[in-house]
Amino acid sequence: MHSRRHWLAAAGGLALGAGGLGQARSASPYPSRPITLWVPWQAGGATDISLRLLAELASRALGQTVVTDNRAGAGGTLAMNVLLQAEPDGYTIAQMPQPVFRAPWVQKVLWDPVRDVTPIIQVSGVTFGVLVPAGSALRSLDDLFAYARAHPGELSIATNGVGTTPHLVLEDLFTARGLRYIHVPYKGTAEQITAIMAGQVMAGVNSTGFGPAVDTGRLRLLAIFSAQRSKRWPQVPTLRELGFDIVAMSPYGLAGPRGLPAPIVATLHDAFKRAMLDPRFVQELAKYDQEIDYLGPEDYARACREIYARERINVERLATPQAASHGG
């Protein structure tokens, strides 16, 4: 009898200990282990480099390491699959680039960029430009059109992927003139810039991560997609100046899985806001002609909904038999 009471007491103590351990774990302050930030581009590109610095700076504010991992391909949308499968515990977050709001309108995907994420913070945005190798005989957008007209289907132009903003703008530009080109998609900026410089493609459209290559004379910038000329490259015209009513900006931010608790959102927001205002990060963005474009969780969520609705209109406008036949 004594031994039975002793066994029950020991078992009860064990159960209490297990319960106490579970409660301790659930009550442990966030974050209590490293956080993974998924970057949907290849390592070494401008966005990857700047987000790695942002993660490093945020780590200090969070008291835990923010580890960056890459999931490149599919036009920058692969991190959405990661968020879809992740627990909403704050230990998995990802960059939200513009293509994630467009992809559901052009192909079947398992996720919804509004329903399946919790917006945390908008960080910055990129604009785009048309590039050629420094030694290219093509010196303007008109030169590209003339070459495409004289050599149908021979002009090769690289982008960061099918369905990305650069790809849609190319479709708009060339389809409007009844011209054909060879679309060559790459997984990221670094890979594409290397291909342009090496002459593997005749031209490329990329985000302003091309800045250092243009500044050092390895690439020539023919046109930019922003509303005004860049202070950095004031000699380069905008598409609007060239007669095309196109302004293509691509804001981006960070998000977590659906159902991320508000206190965790607040903790992440505060840490990343502090990090993005750090002079080191501001200077890093400046290398790529970018600036801080901050939005908090509620405003960023509203902006995501607006972008998603706008992308549907853009895709429907371009989804014509003529547009589909030029580019790929």
Describe the structure.
With 328 residues, the chain is of the alpha/beta class. Helix content is 43%, strand content 20%. Strands 1, 2, 3, 4, 5, 6, 7, 8, 9 and 10 form a 10-stranded mixed β-sheet that branches. Strand 1, helix 2 and strand 2 form a beta-alpha-beta unit. Helix 2 packs across helix 9 and helix 4 packs across helix 11. The N terminus and C terminus are likely disordered.
Name the structural class.
Answer: alpha/beta
Number of H- or I-type helical stretches:
12
What pattern of helices and strands is seen along the backbone? HEHEHEHEHEHEHEHEEHHEHH
User: Percent of residues in beta strands?
Assistant: 15-25%
What does the radius of gyration come to? 24 Å
The best one-word shape is globular
Produce a short descriptive summary.
This protein is an alpha/beta fold and 328 residues long.
Present the secondary structure layout.
Layout: H1 2-27, E1 35-39, H2 46-62, E2 66-70, H3 79-85, E3 92-96, H4 99-106, E4 117-133, H5 141-150, E5 156-159, H6 165-175, E6 182-185, H7 189-197, E7 203-207, H8 211-215, E8 219-224, E9 249-257, H9 262-276, H10 279-286, E10 292-295, H11 297-318, H12 321-324
Helix pairs in contact: 2-9, 2-10, 4-11
Main traits of this protein?
single chain; 328 residues; alpha/beta; 10-stranded mixed beta sheet; 12 helices; 10 strands; disordered N terminus; disordered C terminus
